[in-house]
Every structure is written in C-alpha cells, then in structure tokens.
Amino acid sequence: MTPAVQLVTDYENDGVVLVRAFLSAEEVAAVRAELERYIRDDLSAQPPDARTFEKDEKTVRNLWRLEKYNEWFRQLGERADIRALVAPLLHGEPVLVGVETFNKPARIGSGVPYHQDNAYFCQTPPDMLTVWIAIDPVTEANGPVFFVKGSHHAGMQPTKPSGVRGNSIGMASPPAVPLRDQFCGLLAPGDATIHQCETIHHSAPNTTDFARLGLLLVYRGSHTQTDPALKAAYSTAVAMTPPA
Ligand SMILES: O=C(O)CCC(=O)C(=O)O
C-alpha cells in the first residue's frame, strides 16, 4: 500500500492516525509567532466567542474561530496540500469549519473530559475530522490527548453537559477501555494526529512547567448536514458554559 492509501485505511479502521512532520520547523515557528502576535495585539478587541480563558481569567485556554478572525490562519486552513490530504478521509470536498487552539498552559492548563467531537459539530453523516498539530512537544506528563481507537464505529454515545468552560458537552459515562489500552498522542512539534469526529478522546490537566500548545484545523465534507437532535443537546450544554 502507498503511504496515502495506508493513511486512509488506518483512519477508517482506528478513527485516529498519526502524521509525523505534518508541518516543518519553520512552519511551526511561524504558527507560534502569529499566535503570540494575535493574542498580544488583536484578541482583546475580538468578541467573547474568540477565546476561553483558564480559571485565572487571563491565560488563554482556547482560541476559537481563527478562520474568521485571523486571515493568516484562514489561509493556513485552506492550504491546497492539507485539503488534498483530508479529502479522502472526508469522503468528499473539504470545507474548513474551524481553526482553533488548545493551549494547555504550564501548571494551570485544564483537562478535557471524555467526548466525541460530533456532540459539538452535530453533523450527519459524520464525515468531519480534526487535524491536531503539536506546536510544543506533547509528552506523557503535560496532558497529551488519549484516543479510544475504533470507538467511532459505535457512533454517538449518550452525552451530558460537562460544566467545563471550552468543552461544554461530554459523555454521559466514560468508556470502559482503560487508559493503558488507549492511544496516546505523543508528538514532537510539527507532528499531527487526525481524528474522526466520533472517536472518543480526552486529556488530563497540565501540572508541568511546560506548555502543550496544539493548533487544530477542523474540516467537514461539503455533503454533511446538521442533525437536529445532536444540535438540541449541544445548544443546551453550551448555553450553560459558553462559548464552546
Ligand atoms: O487538546 C486537547 O487536550 C483536547 C483536544 C480535543 O478535544 C480535540 O481535538 O477535539
């Protein structure tokens, strides 16, 4: 099998794949520089739905909607080579629907409860995915993302509002698969994971002295539609802990 065909096969089977050196060291440095500039110069003038802060109310936990608020990141998400890579995984024409960050800052970075992204995206068929790109090293200690391989095959599981700012909806109960049997996304800067929107995943708080910044590119196939039942559950949860 060619690497491209292997990627599609692994993605279909496991619901998550690892891509080493998705971005070069120069590209990672450019992402970091633009994020720092945006946070320093632009963020305070953007609407509240542009970010979620950690509990200290000043350190960024997430940036949201960068494809809308930042032209540089919109162009990154629209790159032809990235669109070509994800198109076969989406079974259709990619539509960029989100560019966001999970900053997981040193010492205070909060955890992410068990969830399936389609509880947020609410799309049917679930031809939607996230490219999660490491900007910092992701280690076992600083809150890597754990994925339950193959969990997307079982479809959407019951949800409940989580009360977590930035991750308002989670699973009603955690999966039975123990942590040691889950796939841990240990990444060097520039490496990426790509996960399907119904693959169960979560991450722990970051209590280390090392930040764990991830940049996320979210795409759907142009043929997907909003599922009203998923949307109703999400609307209830996000109203409790906006904006995401
Ligand atoms: O970065 C994290 O810790 C969680 C990321 C996540 O939930 C996602 O990629 O959907």
Strand content: 25-35%
Number of helices: 7
What separation lies between the terminal Cα atoms? 39 Å
Major sheet description: 7 strands, antiparallel
Number of domains: 1
> Which architecture name does CATH use?
Sandwich
How do the SSEs run, as a string of H and E? HEHEEHHHEEHEEEEEEEEEEH
Strand neighbour order, sheet with most strands: 1-12-7-14-4-3-2
Verbal overview:
The chain has 244 residues and is an alpha+beta fold. It has one domain (3-240): q2cbj1_9rhob like domain (Jelly Rolls, Sandwich). The protein is 28% helix and 27% strand. The chain has seven helices and 15 strands. Strands 1-12-7-14-4-3-2 form a seven-stranded antiparallel β-sheet. Strands 5-13-8-11 form a four-stranded antiparallel β-sheet, with no helix packed on it. A two-stranded antiparallel sheet has the order 6-15. It is globular. The termini are far apart. The chain binds 2-oxoglutaric acid (AKG). Residues 102, 104, 112, 117, 130, 132, 145, 201, 203, 214, 216 line the site of 2-oxoglutaric acid (AKG).
